[in-house]
Write a structure and sequence with these properties.
Protein name: DUF4158 domain-containing protein
Order of helices and strands: HHHHHHHHHH
InterPro entries: DUF4158
Strand content: under 5%
Radius of gyration: 23 Å
Largest sheet: none
Oligomer: single chain
Structural class: mainly alpha
Number of strands: 0
Number of domains: 2
Helix content: 55-70%
Distance between the termini: 16 Å
Organism: Streptosporangium carneum
Length: about 220
């Protein structure tokens, strides 16, 4: 049915995100709430049992909370976090947050900790579970009327909850959302067309004649 492809062209392109959504993707915001600190940075003493040096404990704790909150590790500088985050972790450990600078003297330590935390939290790369995210989005598109921005937020929350690391490039996710919406909307239109009478089919054809230029 030629009108299906034309209707698919009406879907919003990949640059549908708000500035706020782009700004907070895999990044800390200037203000981290008490609720967020409690949810993501309240430490597990058992996981820290093998860490001895104060700086090692603090660096590990910050990385542990960071990936739980942001869905990513801060590879370039794992301690590039708001001051309240560092202070909250240090207070729990009863150590001076100023010792954090020592954590950066051996980059390999932070790298090893990141992999240790991956195993502990059973985190997965997006590429290995992309189909799972695709299936989740497909179900939401089919069952709800959520727009692409809402779907983006839903997808991020889903991945954080399910232990899926967010893809490095934000366009990886926006393109997936656009693709899933296009496929699922085409499936919806095809289902409607199969049940539609001649009059509705004619109206759909007329609609595509003046909208197809958008493609």
């Amino acid at each position: 049915m030629p009108w299906l492809s034309a209707l698919a062209c009406l879907l919003m392109p990949v640059d549908f995100l708000s500035d706020e959504q782009v700004a907070r993707y895999r990044r800390f915001q200037p203000e981290v709430s008490v609720a967020e600190l409690e949810q993501f940075f309240r430490l597990d003493a058992r996981a820290l049992a093998g860490k001895r040096r104060p700086a090692t404990k603090l660096g590990w704790a910050v990385q542990w909370g960071t990936v739980r909150m942001l869905g990513t590790f801060l590879a370039e500088d794992p301690l590039d976090v708001p001051g309240v985050v560092l202070a909250f972790a240090a207070e729990q450990l009863d150590i001076d947050p100023a010792c954090a600078i020592e954590y950066l003297t051996r980059p390999k330590t932070a790298y090893e900790h990141a992999w240790e935390i991956r195993d502990l939290l059973e985190l997965s790369e997006f590429s290995k579970r992309e189909q799972e995210v695709r299936d989740y989005l497909s179900a939401r598109v089919w069952l709800t009327i959520e727009g692409p921005r809402a779907l983006f937020d839903r997808a991020v929350v889903h991945m954080l909850r399910e232990g899926i690391l967010l893809p490095t490039g934000i366009t990886t996710l926006t393109r997936l959302i656009s693709e899933v919406r296009r496929i699922e909307h085409a499936r919806l239109y095809r289902t409607l067309a199969e049940r539609a009478g001649p009059e509705l089919r004619a109206r759909l054809a007329d609609l595509t004649r003046w909208t197809c230029w958008i493609c």
